[in-house]
Design brief:
CATH architecture of the largest domain: 3-Layer(aba) Sandwich
Helix content: 25-40%
Strand content: 15-25%
Structural class: alpha/beta
Strand order of the largest sheet: 3-2-4-5-7-6-12
Number of strands: 14
């Protein structure tokens, strides 16, 4: 019979609280240790450790053959990754910000997304493109984008946006192990967020939404960081006897409709919040889909909220005014429920 000490040693280690950026680094480290075909390529990811310190220390650990500091040439970076993926490697690209991906948009849309289809399934493109996005850091109009929709609309790409450290690690590991190109969108405002991360090797499936909070009065679907703010707003609305259910979309393509539909059929009301522009946005797609799937259950029109429809200002007060807040979400919830706003 095992002693108490032996039993304690065999017990799995407990989850630990970690930064979002650290969880991503752990995912990269573990997958590179597990599979020699995984390598990293991007700007300033080696000696500098990445623009947001996600790849810090990985050059020393794995060397320049597997942590490739590339020149400032996004089309070349993505094209190199596509070619190497077709030949059996598993590249993880880091683009410094999501707007730089526009330089490589032809490579992503006309090559990465279509090669498997155009080769009749005989060629695969198992690659991940990591991209920080969002606003809130005074990076002005050219470096403050929430472009989830321009990748979500492309068949052949998986497009995901994890919001917790646990999901950041588990979803990145799933993305690296998959055989399809994955656009992995990371909100810059989440890199310093802390959360519990399970110990040991685990993966989080792609293409699945997450129910973050149960409620009965209204469904709030959050896209990327807006799911975090929606959860904050829901907790504060408890004081007003408003019971909001929060769904973290997590997957932009494919959309996991079932939990959204189940929730709206229960609450009879829905709002969708994104940081990007809501005209033609992810929130437009979700609200339209809710109307189609839940029309007979709705007691009010499904509503959406996005960032201000302007290039992002550099001015800090104007920047803050351009991004949805928890207070904005609360006001929209009250309006959807027909309640008077405090503001």
């Amino acid at each position: 019979m095992a002693t108490a000490t032996q039993q304690q040693q065999k017990a799995p280690p407990a989850a630990e609280e970690k930064l979002y950026r650290v969880a991503l680094r752990e995912a990269l480290t573990e997958e590179m240790e597990r599979d020699d075909s995984v390598y990293l390529i991007g700007e300033d990811i080696g000696k500098f450790g990445g623009a947001y310190r996600v790849t810090e220390g990985l050059l020393d650990k794995f060397g320049p053959q597997r942590v490739v500091d590339a020149p400032i040439a996004e089309e070349v970076i993505v094209g190199t990754a596509i070619g190497s993926a077709m030949l059996g490697l598993r590249p993880v690209v880091e683009l410094m910000t999501i707007n730089f991906s526009l330089v490589a948009y032809d490579q992503i849309v006309n090559n990465a997304a279509k090669i498997r289809y155009m080769f009749g399934g005989e060629a695969r493109v198992p690659m991940v493109i990591r991209m920080p996005g969002g606003a809130g850091h005074q990076l002005s109009a050219q470096h403050s984008h929430s472009l989830e929709v321009i990748y979500g609309l492309i068949p052949g790409l998986l497009t995901v946006a994890p919001t917790t450290p646990e999901d950041a690690k588990g979803m990145l590991k799933s993305a690296i192990r998959g055989d399809n190109p994955v656009m992995f969108l990371e909100s810059m405002s989440l890199y310093n967020v802390r959360g519990m991360v399970p110990a040991g090797d685990y993966t989080t499936p792609l293409g699945k939404a997450a129910l973050r909070r149960e409620g009965s009065d209204v469904t709030v679907v959050g896209v990327s960081r807006m799911a975090v703010l929606a959860n904050e707003a829901a907790k504060q609305l408890e004081e007003e006897d408003i019971d909001a259910e929060v769904i973290d979309l997590r997957s932009i393509r494919p959309i996991d409709w079932q939990p959204i539909v189940d929730s709206v059929r229960k609450t009879s009301r829905c709002i969708v919040v994104e940081e990007g522009w809501s005209t033609y946005g992810v929130s437009a797609e979700i609200t339209a889909g809710v109307q189609e799937r839940c029309f007979d259950y709705l007691d009010a029109p499904s509503r959406r909220m996005g960032g201000a429809q302007v290039p992002m200002p550099y001015s800090l007060p104007l920047e803050k005014a351009s991004i949805p807040t928890a207070e904005d979400i609360k006001r929209l919830v009250r309006a959807t429920l027909g309640k008077k706003s405090d503001a």
